[in-house]
Design goal:
Blueprint lengths: L1 E6 L4 E5 L2 E7 L10 H12 L7 E6 L3 E3 L4 H6 L6 H4 E3 H4 L8 E5 L2 E5 L4 E4 L4 E3 L2 E5 L2 E2 L1 H4 L16 H14 L2 E5 L3 H17 L4 E6 L10 H14 L2 E4 L3 E7 L4 E6 L4 E4 L1 E4 L4 E2 L25 E2 L11 H19 L5 H5 L11
Parallel strand pairs: 1-3, 1-4, 1-11, 3-11, 4-7, 11-21, 13-14, 13-19, 14-15
Antiparallel strand pairs: 2-3, 5-6, 8-9, 9-10, 12-20, 16-17, 17-18
Keywords: FAD, Flavoprotein, Oxidoreductase
InterPro entries: FAD/NAD-bd_sf, FAD/NAD-binding_dom
Pfam family, one: Pyr_redox_2
């Protein structure tokens, strides 16, 4: 069986002599997780699925996995991490596996041909599959430089994540006024990391965090959000609350960003960074697989299309969700590959948690 997992930053394929499976993913990890351990467990997840002769093919635009959970600190404090600490060599990680069991393909998925059971890559190379798992995850506006300075909260789909990280670090380090849009976990952590740098370096710079609601970290317990506000205030971060950004444009003449809020407020800065909601990595996915917002439609068994991670039409899109989805997809794939409806498949379902833990 050949199993292919597609991600825009990572794609993997699993094959058995009589069957093939393919997974296509995006610039995150194959399961949407950002951790080295999770990356390694993706392969083990198939091997453990009673498919001992399966062949896995992983397809990704880059040979290195971006540990983007650490991106707020990586971008705010360039000297804290070396690139090899947050960019993990994927082929090296799987080097101990037999080539008959695992195959790595560096490339970007362009289309899925369901009739012929192949994933076509940019450049027209074709990867055949018996089973295809879409694990392409999500990106962000700032990662792609849309209405924001380019700041890679996720891996770049062109495979040039390191170059983008280094350019962003330089931009952030030299900016005198930084406006951060979005007071969720990434925005709050990034604002705190930046303010910590300025406090230690005693640099006269201004950091503003914009929250569309009357507090920060609305995904968690209110007490946690209040504590975060206290810390940000102590670090000198200005927090604009209760107004939403309606437009952000870059004025080339002044080299400054003009940010307009829905209450009529107009702000200006030489660096503007969006940390708001995820954007699905779905350019290669057929339209009939997607809901009206571009996420892959799945039921409680994570089918009819095999999918896992940020790309599925469920919230929250967190690393914790991967751990909950994994055994469900595993049981489904195991039963389907054997042509059975096992009790384990029927009993295991995924029901997303409504909020992050407090």
């Amino acid at each position: 069986m050949t199993l292919v997992i597609c991600q825009h930053d990572l794609v993997r394929r699993v094959i058995r002599p009589e069957r093939r499976a393919v997974t296509q993913g995006v610039p995150s990890s194959i399961l949407g997780s950002r951790a080295k351990l999770r990356l390694r467990s993706t392969f083990h997840f198939f091997v453990a699925a009673s498919i001992p002769k399966a062949h896995v093919t992983l397809i990704t635009p880059s040979s290195h996995f971006f540990y983007n959970i650490a991106s707020p600190r990586i971008l705010a404090k360039p000297n804290v991490f070396r690139p090899e600490q947050y960019l993990i060599n994927i082929p090296k990680l799987f080097a101990h596996h037999d080539s008959n069991a695992f195959h790595f393909v560096e490339g970007l998925a362009a289309t899925i041909d369901q009739d012929n059971r192949v994933v076509r890559l940019v450049g027209r190379k074709e990867i055949p599959y018996d089973y295809l798992i879409i694990a392409s995850g999500s990106t962000t506006q700032s990662t792609e430089g849309v209405d924001s300075d380019i700041v890679p909260w996720k891996a770049r789909q062109n495979g040039q994540t390191l170059e983008c990280v280094m350019e962003s670090q330089k931009k952030i380090a030299t900016a005198r006024e930084i406006i951060i849009c979005g007071a969720g976990p990434v925005g709050v952590e990034f604002a705190g990391e930046l303010a910590d740098v300025l406090r230690k370096d005693k640099k006269e710079r201004r950091i503003t965090l914009i929250s569309a609601t009357d507090r920060v970290l609305t995904q968690v317990n209110e007490r946690v959000g209040c504590h975060a506000m206290t810390v940000l205030n102590r670090l000198g971060v200005e927090v604009s609350r209760g107004s939403r950004v309606i437009s952000a444009s870059h004025d080339t003449a002044s080299a400054r960003w003009i940010i307009k809020l829905d209450d009529g407020t107009v702000m200006s800065s030489d660096c503007y960074i969006s940390t708001t909601g995820p954007v699905p990595n779905n350019k290669f996915v057929p339209d009939h697989f997607l809901d009206d917002q571009g996420w892959v439609k799945v039921d409680a068994h994570l089918v009819p299309v095999y999918a896992i991670g940020d790309i599925v039409a469920h919230q929250p899109r967190t690393v914790r969700a991967i751990s909950e989805q994994l055994p469900v997809l595993l049981a489904t794939l195991e039963a389907d590959s054997q042509g059975t409806s096992s009790d384990r498949r029927l009993n295991l379902t995924y029901s997303p948690s409504p909020k992050l833990p407090s």
